[in-house]
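Exam revision sheet. Question 4 asks you to relate a sequence to its structure. Input first:
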Amino acid sequence: MGRGSLVRGELELRILEGQTDKVFWEKRGISRIITICADPESRRDIQALMEDTGVHMEIAASAEEGQERLKGRDEGCQLALLDWESGGIACLRKMRKALAASVPIVLLAEFDAKGLEEALNITGTSILTKPFFISAFQEKVAQMWADSEEPGDLGPVT
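Answer key, structure tokens:
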């Protein structure tokens, strides 16, 4: 009597996946992404997959619609995701003009899509191979941030 017990144990505590997704985007200062995708089903899928990340997705079917969505906004977007099949190099050039030079653009494309070589010569452009997965998207964004000397100084990356 009068003696206590000593119990030792190990606990593995994990951060819930949804919370890690939010932390990933917050660490990079990404709260708004403009997405250009002509296919309605793909737009819905991307938006649904990004729903729990804490990132606001501006979704547009074309570069013109995307430019309209960006006009008059107090807060801009920090990243752009463009489906290559939604206008290719012409869409990329329009969005590059509409976005601040520091905003990186990720092209969502088939691995054998035509014309991507020219696109990679445009500053701050990178390619993500279809299909869209959040984990692959995060890897690409992390690579873009790591490859740049400063987050606002993204040059051509692949």
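Marking note for examiners. The CA atoms of residues 31 and 55 lie 5 Å apart.
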